[in-house]
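Work Package 4 report. The design task specified in the project plan requires that, given a folded chain encoded as structure tokens, an amino acid be chosen for each position. We show below one input record used in the internal validation round.
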């Protein structure tokens, strides 16, 4: 960030060195997104030997876990698959639902893993769901409060509150990590034990889920770096 200076011609511009933290987070997020897309595309071309679709895989896992009441619905898009704990609905995207690829099987099984977490009252999942309203409010209020603190003679109390509210997103992403990793672990265990995939297909599906998990890790890192930047800029009462 380049900020005009009022200290003469020699210091016409001021470069904020902490902005590099934002750039690092952006690069990490872009790399993770590109990696998961390329990995998914690669194994989406690999047909499974058993020719089971993503929808059939999800239904197999749900029924085996005693979750016949959880319905499976279609949703448009690519990698928009998700499980809704409130509705007890597992939604599979166009690219996953009817595909017989290794990638589709991995994604469908992962979402079914979330349904099992819900049924077993998996604590991190419950905690994540409980704090969603708080995080949404914090996200909306953080920037305005931070700006107000800066405008009112750098009121440190308001600035600190703004930073803490902004940090709620980072906390949410931290809680999300065990939820996602655990869902993938459950998925891979079932895929292998039930022989939904066999041979090298198992490792290929694992690579897809690992790549997807890296997007959550990247998001957490990027969020942490942004919070760190705010602390470095304003946390100590510095006046810009």
């Amino acid at each position: 960030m380049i900020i005009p200076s009022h200290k003469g011609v020699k210091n016409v511009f001021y470069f904020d060195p902490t902005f590099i933290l934002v750039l690092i987070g952006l690069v990490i997020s872009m790399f993770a997104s590109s990696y998961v897309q390329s990995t998914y595309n690669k194994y989406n071309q690999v047909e499974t030997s058993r020719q089971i679709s993503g929808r059939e895989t999800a239904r197999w896992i749900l029924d085996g876990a005693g979750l016949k009441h959880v319905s499976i619905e279609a949703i448009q898009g690519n990698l928009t698959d998700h499980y809704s704990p409130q509705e007890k609905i597992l939604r599979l995207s166009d690219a996953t639902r009817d595909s017989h690829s290794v990638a589709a099987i991995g994604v469908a099984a992962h979402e079914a893993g979330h349904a099992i977490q819900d049924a077993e009252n998996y604590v991190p999942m419950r905690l994540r769901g409980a704090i969603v309203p708080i995080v949404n409010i914090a996200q909306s209020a953080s920037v305005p409060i931070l700006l107000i603190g800066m405008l009112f003679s750098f009121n440190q109390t308001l600035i600190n509150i703004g930073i803490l509210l902004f940090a709620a997103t980072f906390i949410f992403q931290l809680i999300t990590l065990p939820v996602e990793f655990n869902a993938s672990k459950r998925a891979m265990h079932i895929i292998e034990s039930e022989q939904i995939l066999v041979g090298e297909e198992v490792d290929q599906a694992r690579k897809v889920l690992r790549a997807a998990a890296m997007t959550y890790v990247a998001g957490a890192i990027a969020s942490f770096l942004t919070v760190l930047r705010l602390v470095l800029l304003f946390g100590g009462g510095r006046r810009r």
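DSSP finds seven helices and five strands in the chain. Validation will be extended to a larger panel in the next phase.
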